[in-house]
Amino acid sequence: MPLKIETFSNVTGGSSYFKAIGHPLAAEPAQALLADLRAAGRVAVYDPLNMLEPFDEIHHLSGVDVAAVYAQNVDKIGEPLLGRPAQPVTALAGTEVDAVFVAAFDADRLVTHIQHLIPAGAKVYSLDPLKLPADLLTDRRTYLAPLNFATNYAFFRDGAGHHTRVVTANYWSSYGAAEPYLWLCLFGEHGQVLARWTQELPGADGTVVIDSAAVRKKFDLPEFTGQLFIHVVGAAGHDVVKYALDTYGDTADTLSCTHDANAWPSDFYAGLPAPRADERVILWVQNSHPCPIPAGAVALNLMGHDTAVELDREVPPYATFALDVASLLPDARWPQQVEIRAGKHFVRPRYEVIRTDAAGATRHRIAHPNVERVDLKPDPKLATLTNLMGKGFILPAPIFPAGRFRTIALPTPMGTTQDHLPLTAIVYDADGTEVARRDLGRLPRDHETVFEAADILDGRSLPSGYGHLELIYDFAAGENDADGWLHALFRYEDGVSGHAAETSFGAHMFNTVLTYKNEPQSYSGRAPGLSTRLFLRTGMAADVDTLCHLIYPASTPWNARSNTALILMTKDGEEVARRTVTIACSGSFHFRVGQTFTSSEVKEAGRDAYVLIRDTTCRLFGYHGLIRDGANGAFALDHMFGF
């Protein structure tokens, strides 16, 4: 069964309450509170703020002798709470109980309101013992303020020649944070705490790096595969912790990068590719809560198929389990795709594709599926807006030089009510010229339609040598099917090294002043988002260069060319050099840091430098990656983050 907790609302944003009761530092006080309640005798439970059932879902009130449950809102009276009809809190007076449990933080005021109703001698408990220490709070007046819980998880591994590296920037200081820092907790495979520490942050927009090899050495740890809990203390502007996660190896043939984990556990994830015959696909199930994931609570099914196969084992609190997709779906094969029934037990997970080639060489690549929405329905209005919003929602992806790379696309349903995807694919040259297009039709939910950019080009070449692909809705094929949550998985295969990388993302409206349901999306402030501020981290070693593919998508005609600054920054946020490029509307720009800036400039920028991509004239969409040249080299790719 899915957890009955609220994690995210597209109206109000992320919930801080589930983060508060699930924070690693709240786990032990929660167990102490439950022990006190179980020993207290008969307990009256008061739920003034609808926090009781989520607390019970995470920490379990079993064993507590609950005499009755009380509510404040008259609309809740008679409704079931903990399996009992809720009574008005005014009925608490005169009851024979030994204790009253107020299921709320900052409970003093709430207790004062009912002081006259509390039976004489009854001891009062609340959630306040679960509060974090004051020095970990940004807003000490309002405990559940979102900025108090700027947290996220990252897949973190070090061993058997594999390492991980979290890279971000201190964008919180750019929004006014005075002295933010990181509180970090590393969990091992079984959910055990391997290390806890704090890390200072650099000045505004400085680089933040957490490398698994350095952490392992610092704490003298054995090999581990687990997850890193990241808490930004003193955050401002954003309670979202964005990062790039690089996975690299001791040999040149291991390299991947993925986006942040998306800190709100979801009911469903989708876009998980089924394996090819020469592949294994491992879904890394990483429990985000201090309660076990029960056996049977996580399940997989082929997209568009109702039959789901359950994971018949428990996953302990904060633990990591490597779920081989073939163990549940042995007949699943690419280009089929898998739906993950996650039940809000974990944040957006990572999956690892392990491929063994004909020569016996093994390659690893890591990527992430995406959130499948349960709150969306098809929006027929979208088909009526083409006169105003032009192409409307656009999903852009790079097309790398065809002489070396294959560019492969698999559209992925990302809403539980999304029965059909009416799509058109358009290929653009780097100069913004449309070169080819193909109507893909009205794809059913269980489709296996995978295509290559080369298929659409049908023998033609891109004059610039590279370009980009756009997926848009084809309203002629299905005017009542679009829901604005168009996604696809894009896979890139290197004909030189044999390595592959993949990324998945969703569509947005781009570069139009008209707005529709908070689109074009803005990183800060209200829509429309019509400017660019992207973070491009640089290579981690001398033999690793950074690649970037910037795309200038436009729902309606916008500025003919961008005015894009590529600013090379030190890890402390100081500018070393800049280049200005102009990208054609509906065009793209592919570059490498080591070829765009001189070797002396790169050397001056130093280790852990980054490139700030800034444009005040348009919104660009970017993909970043790392690449090692050579016959055995690997490359990595995923979409970028802005702030």
Automatic annotation (TrEMBL):
Species in which this protein is naturally found: Nitrospirillum amazonense
Protein name: Uncharacterized protein
